[in-house]
């Protein structure tokens, strides 16, 4: 939207806040600290993620990252040679798009955040980004392929958005990473698609922008039984379609409960594909561990891992060191969003430190647009993206293999899309007993 000032130099956001047109709700500071001094300018960062509900695994590392930011910055940030009080206000979307929009509105209109951060799936990133675009607040989002973030919100490549910016990979990258894995195995090129009726599923299954046209170009045949509602308890129709089409590969983007239901029913009904490459559900160690031995050699995209050759701009830790620190602090296996949530705060701190005018959203946006930062997930810049407002990060793919301290390790088996990220093994077909 256009940057419009009301009489007296007030922005639309200033007017709404001053006139009391704000959403209710108590301030839940994500980071503890002492109260600000009278008259002291407080810099506020809003952060929204799905901490509860079906998407909660995406936010499993949030507290570790937030605690680390607290320890490192001590609730202060230096801008233009002056120290300011820093608050990070954390909100839970509850895995609900409506709730995500609601808490974003509260952060903007009631809490007056200077910069919004949001992570994890279009159901979270899109409603939060929309609130920021409407209210002229700089926003950085991640952990959603850029197409469902950009096009689903009505983005036009020649125009883009004014206040909302995204960094992640795109469907072109996940298709490239998946097909690089599949081409490493012999067999028919028939692929069964599991695409739910949500932002990711509709984007991945889109006949123009998603998997179908690219798979056809690469010589694969797609069996697409149509969209389904998440949290379904019966995948018999999809399994029957895949068996009829003689699919040897299954792909899609589903939540962990749906993957568990599908895979259990597929094995019960005698459907035995050589490859299952699924986004979202297979990202998390907990989801694979819950499958027991049936999780062996299931595959997924890998956006970040301890093997990624990048380091944090905040504390200098390598990807491997960050993953080790997380395991030592929590007793849990590293998870892919760990790197990207860390990178969100790397970007926030870098941008705010370079802001020319404290409290001016236009100045924050200008600093954002000038970003050239090497983060723990790779270099981030919005100067050379596929469309305005998008910065791309590298993507590879791999398989879950039994072994290690947690039962399964994620092994990189295809790096054609990002050769600087090292391979950890070769692609293997799924095997079945009996």
TrEMBL record:
Gene3D superfamilies: 3.40.50.2300
Top-level taxonomic group: Bacteria
SUPFAM superfamilies: Periplasmic binding protein-like I (SSF53822)
Annotated keywords: Amino-acid transport, Signal, Transport
An annotated GO BP: amino acid transport
Family, per entry: Belongs to the leucine-binding protein family.
Name of the molecule in the record: ABC-type branched-chain amino acid transport system, periplasmic component
Protein's organism: Pseudomonas knackmussii (strain DSM 6978 / CCUG 54928 / LMG 23759 / B13)
């Amino acid at each position: 939207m256009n940057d419009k000032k009301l009489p007296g130099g007030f922005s639309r956001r200033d007017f709404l806040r001053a006139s009391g047109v704000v959403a209710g709700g108590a301030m839940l500071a994500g980071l503890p600290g002492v109260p600000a001094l009278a008259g002291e300018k407080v810099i506020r960062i809003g952060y929204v993620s799905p901490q509860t509900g079906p998407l909660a695994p995406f936010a499993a590392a949030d507290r570790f990252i937030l605690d680390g930011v607290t320890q490192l910055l001590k609730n202060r940030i230096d801008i233009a040679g002056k120290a300011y009080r820093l608050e990070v206000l954390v909100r839970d979307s509850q895995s609900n798009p409506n709730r995500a929009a609601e808490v974003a509105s509260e952060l903007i209109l009631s809490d007056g955040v200077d910069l919004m951060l949001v992570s994890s799936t279009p159901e979270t990133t899109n409603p939060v980004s929309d609130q920021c675009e409407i209210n002229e607040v700089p926003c950085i989002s991640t952990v959603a392929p850029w197409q469902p973030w950009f096009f689903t919100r009505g983005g036009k490549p020649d125009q883009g958005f004014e206040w909302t910016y995204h960094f992640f990979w795109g469907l072109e990258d996940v298709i490239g990473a998946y097909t690089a894995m599949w081409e490493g195995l012999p067999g028919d090129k028939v692929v069964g698609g599991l695409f739910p009726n949500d932002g990711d599923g509709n984007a991945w299954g889109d006949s123009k922008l998603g998997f179908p046209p690219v798979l056809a170009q690469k010589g694969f045949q797609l069996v697409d039984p149509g969209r389904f509602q998440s949290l379904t308890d019966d995948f018999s129709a999809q399994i029957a379609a895949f068996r009829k089409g003689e699919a040897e590969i299954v792909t899609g983007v589903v939540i962990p409960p749906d993957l568990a239901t599908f895979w259990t029913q597929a094995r019960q009904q005698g459907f035995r594909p050589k490859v299952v490459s699924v986004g979202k559900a297979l990202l998390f160690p907990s989801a694979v561990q819950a499958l027991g031995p049936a999780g062996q050699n299931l595959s997924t995209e890998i956006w970040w891992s301890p093997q990624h050759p990048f380091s944090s701009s905040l504390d200098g830790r390598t990807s491997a060191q960050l993953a080790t620190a997380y395991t030592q602090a929590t007793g849990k296996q590293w998870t892919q969003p760990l790197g990207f949530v860390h990178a969100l705060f790397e970007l926030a701190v870098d941008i705010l430190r370079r802001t020319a005018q404290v409290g001016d959203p236009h100045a924050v946006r200008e600093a954002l647009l000038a970003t050239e930062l090497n983060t723990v997930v790779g270099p981030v810049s919005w100067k050379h993206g596929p469309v305005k407002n998008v910065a791309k990060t590298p993507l590879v793919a791999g398989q879950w293999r039994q072994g290690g301290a947690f039962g399964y390790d994620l092994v990189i088996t295809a790096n054609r899309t990002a050769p600087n990220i090292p391979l950890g093994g070769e692609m293997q077909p799924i095997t079945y007993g009996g």
